[in-house]
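Work Package 4 report. The design task specified in the project plan requires that, given a folded chain encoded as structure tokens, an amino acid be chosen for each position. We show below one input record used in the internal validation round.
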């Protein structure tokens, strides 16, 4: 009976030892898990710090880019406004020159008509003059003078026409530039268009 009791106690002791080993292994595993949790928590904290740092840098970069964009926009707007003012001033000047050239061309055409009438009158008069008058040197000189004056007037009128065409081409180029830039203030077309129309008709 003592042997049976001893064997039972021995079996219980061995079972208790196994249980202790199992608890020890479990404790080691829990300790390892807690250590891993602490390590992961440290990693998460570092990741959060890096994320905050990157967000701060991105915010600063965005502010810097916005400031640069605003400065560039201000410079561009100032340059565009300056070019528009120069274009309007240039256009007014060209329109004024075209108006003056149109008046000169009109006067030149009138001078040509007057000279042609004078030449025609002189030619008609020569048909009814006597032979002595036709041979008079002063009459021949006056006729040649009228012809020279008529030729000079024609040459001057041709130059005025060429210059007018150049000015009209410049006006058309300025119109295309202003339409491409989509200016904020539309051009006052009433006076300008009427003036150009009159010039083209003349």
């Amino acid at each position: 009976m003592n042997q049976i009791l001893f064997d039972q106690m021995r079996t219980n002791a061995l079972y208790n030892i196994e249980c202790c080993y199992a608890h020890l292994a479990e404790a080691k595993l829990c300790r390892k898990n807690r250590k891993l949790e602490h390590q992961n928590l440290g990693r998460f904290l570092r990741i959060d710090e890096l994320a905050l740092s990157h967000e701060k840098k991105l915010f600063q970069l965005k502010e810097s880019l916005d400031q640069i964009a605003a400065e560039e926009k201000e410079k561009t707007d100032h340059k565009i406004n300056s070019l528009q003012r120069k274009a309007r001033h240039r256009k007014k000047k060209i329109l004024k020159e075209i108006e003056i050239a149109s008046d000169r061309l009109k006067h030149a055409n009138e001078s040509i008509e007057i000279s042609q009438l004078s030449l025609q009158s002189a030619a008609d008069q020569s048909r009814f003059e006597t032979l002595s008058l036709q041979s008079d040197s002063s009459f021949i000189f006056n006729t040649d003078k009228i012809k020279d004056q008529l030729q000079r007037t024609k040459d001057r009128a041709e130059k005025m026409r060429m210059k007018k065409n150049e000015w009209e081409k410049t006006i058309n180029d300025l119109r295309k530039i202003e339409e491409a830039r989509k200016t904020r203030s539309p051009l006052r077309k009433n006076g300008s268009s009427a003036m150009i129309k009159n010039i083209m008709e003349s």
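Residues 2-201 form one domain. Validation will be extended to a larger panel in the next phase.
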